[in-house]
């Protein structure tokens, strides 16, 4: 039975997990650790965690007795924590993550976890968030209505996995199990490409117009919505780009080719065909 949880990384997602657990009725203890003392203090102040580990070493000590450890840090840091935790956790314990890419995490988990006497690792990815991070933006309802993706190592979940999935359901989420490579491919299209597109457009506008007053005066809702993701910090996306490079590059190349097609057909009937295809995509959703 899950009685103690350790959340490694108490930013937007990690703190929201803590708040969601409390909102769903979890009465056990929630400890937290974050590289930023400000994020950690904010998470404690808002009630996302009950106590804070004073150091990484202190967090590793808590991990020895935690029932569930949630890794809510960037992907490369997740992999680092996976290796640090593997020798000190054991049977009955569950480690899970919220990383935006899954193939490298799942491959490492298969080497380090599962089997007799070992803790179980359940790779996860909640499709929820905001363009800005930080514990101060965390909320218990962040995952309500969202899809929580899993790329499990085994088709037979342990009791700990089942219990964690149950809590996830109490957050108001839906869940879907996927192959890790397929996860990274699909997320490159539906999440990573929109981010890169918004970043490129916002950077291009800044480079071209800087603080020209006309942009703010003329640009309306369409511009705000299209560049909203451009407010996301590099620190949130560096590891995504580094651990899902080829799928993201493939989507960017496909988009470059599509934009070239549009540019070359601004005065032909094929432009209408593109609009009709785009309209059809939107109607399906």
Task: Note down, in words, how this protein is organized.
The protein has 285 residues and is of the alpha/beta class. The protein folds into 2 domains: 4-178, Rossmann fold (3-Layer(aba) Sandwich), CATH 3.40.50.720; 182-284, Orthogonal Bundle (6-phosphogluconate dehydrogenase C-terminal fold), CATH 1.10.3660.10. Helix content is 53%, strand content 12%. It contains 12 helices and 9 strands. The chain has helices at residues 12-23, 37-45, 56-63, 75-85, 103-112, 159-170, 180-209, 213-218, 221-227, 234-243, 245-264, 270-284; strands spanning 4-8, 29-33, 51-52, 68-71, 94-97, 120-122, 124-126, 147-150, 174-177. Strands 3-2-1-4-5-6 form a 6-stranded parallel beta sheet, with helices on both faces. A 3-stranded mixed beta sheet has the order 7-8-9, with helices on one face. α1 (12-23) links the parallel β1 (4-8) and β2 (29-33). α7 (180-209) crosses α11. The longest helix has 30 residues, at 180-209. The chain is globular and about 65 Å long. The two termini are 39 Å apart. Keywords: Oxidoreductase. This is Prephenate/arogenate dehydrogenase domain-containing protein. It comes from Edaphobacter acidisoli.
